């Protein structure tokens, strides 16, 4: 697949950091118009209290309104397991289409079973407005964008490229953070390695924007790097580390990781494009499957 890269377009990017989940949300503005996209928004969730709130999403909404931007796309790089998406909340306030990778259907099939969802839970991705496949092109205003299929962390992961900026989701972390885990159901360390190679095949000067950073070694959080920097300095894949070595390392590392605190609510909400499921009474309600994950 040859991707339609155009390094001459520089979108304006505003970054929002959610400290409880170490997630970055981006507002990406087309330089030629007022159109923008939101990438990986966050809903605030106090799991112990079962309490949802909207401060993080409101910050993004307030920014878009204050700048007079028109929201065209609300993109999820994948079905996140560590935070709940605010996509429908943002869409209700500002419009825009919610998009995710077409392999969302695989995630819905897998977790539809884990959560014993009935037949009313559609597993065809129809909760989303757009399903992307490898190489799909779309526009934010005048800015040409495209999606790269990057499975490995999850089966539905996509990297989105907008001008000279790529939003890598959970493929790569900052060079000193390495790569994302590949042990969730449907994840695969070898596939993740191959997907990372696709990202590293983009031009050296391509700006890469992370979905997460955990400030390894106590450094302040960081979210932006380049393909060139990842190629030379990434501690998991830089300087030509082999596929075999990566798989071995990644598999051993993943076996020692705890599940993310919010994985159970996140999956139930995010596989529904950010909608909270409802019980027979019509009330928002989440399940905890026992010994299934
Ligand atoms: Fe993730």
TrEMBL record:
Residues 22-212 form the Metallo-beta-lactamase domain. This is Glyoxylase, beta-lactamase superfamily II. One of its GO terms (molecular function) is metal ion binding. SMART domains: Lactamase_B. The keyword Metal-binding applies. GO terms for biological process: glutathione metabolic process; hydrogen sulfide metabolic process. InterPro entries: Metallo-B-lactamas (IPR001279), Mito_Persulfide_Diox (IPR051682), POD-like_MBL-fold (IPR044528), RibonucZ/Hydroxyglut_hydro (IPR036866). Keywords: Metal-binding.
